[in-house]
Amino acid sequence: MAIEPGASGAPARYTLRAGEHRLDLNARLGQPLRLAHTGAIACTHCGRATRKSFAQGYCYPCFKRLAQCDTCIVRPETCHFHAGTCREPEWGERHCFQPHVVYLANSSGLKVGITRKTQVPTRWLDQGAIQALPILEVDTRQQSGFVEVLFKEQVADRTNWRAMLKGDVAPLDLRAERERLLAALDGGLANLRERFGLDAVRVLDAEPVTLDYPVLEAPTKVVSLNLDKTPEIAGTLLGLKGQYLILDNGVINLRKFTGYEVVFE
Length: 265
Ligand SMILES: [Zn+2]
Fold this sequence. Notes:
Blueprint lengths: L1 E3 L8 E6 L2 E4 L7 E10 L18 H6 L5 H4 L14 H7 L4 E7 L3 E7 L5 H6 L3 E8 L2 H11 L9 H6 L7 H11 L1 H11 L5 E2 L5 E2 L21 E10 L2 E4 L2 E4 L6 E5 L1
Antiparallel strand pairs: 1-2, 2-3, 4-10, 4-13, 5-6, 5-7, 7-8, 7-9, 10-11, 11-12
The site of zinc ion has 8 residues, from helix 1.
């Protein structure tokens, strides 16, 4: 599922992609929807059939072999490229040795996150954030991990997805939070600059971004639907937020089922 920011303040645009097919999900709001999993799962990397999906879309051999499935992607501060043990050094150079942004977002309250610079604002839309503010820029994924570890002393790094979907999230003054956190973590940031170079951790002076989602009706009680347990899911599409479809009888995180062959109607 691809999510793009809406034009000038309009809600985000959701497109379901399957091979060459494109389905405009915004146009399906308020309409009945049916998803039926055929039982087939194909690895999103190599295309091979797999009985189970690992790390949201990979077969087991790819899960064990690809750098993008290594634990250092989730915990970038544990990057081991310098030890010569990167699973795919060329992939690492292309993806991890690139400018990364440390941001504050409001998805279910204040959180800190990191992303490759080119993934802004996609990353925020994926998380269902209603506000976001880039605050620091660094040269590598590992450095962004060290900065994030520092911020985690003060701020959450996870989204409470139930609260995010219910939508009862109060707006935050992200600029004020930025000031507060940069002051509180001044010593830790100075240590990182000492280690990586004076201009390694650069403070950004950006304006907060507001993000809007196409939601007719937010769920009051969040029931999670799962294609592994219920291969056929049908309901009325009430909204799209983060990677979730909100139906009148439950919500489904489509990202979780990447690679699943699904009949969609
Ligand atoms: Zn594979």
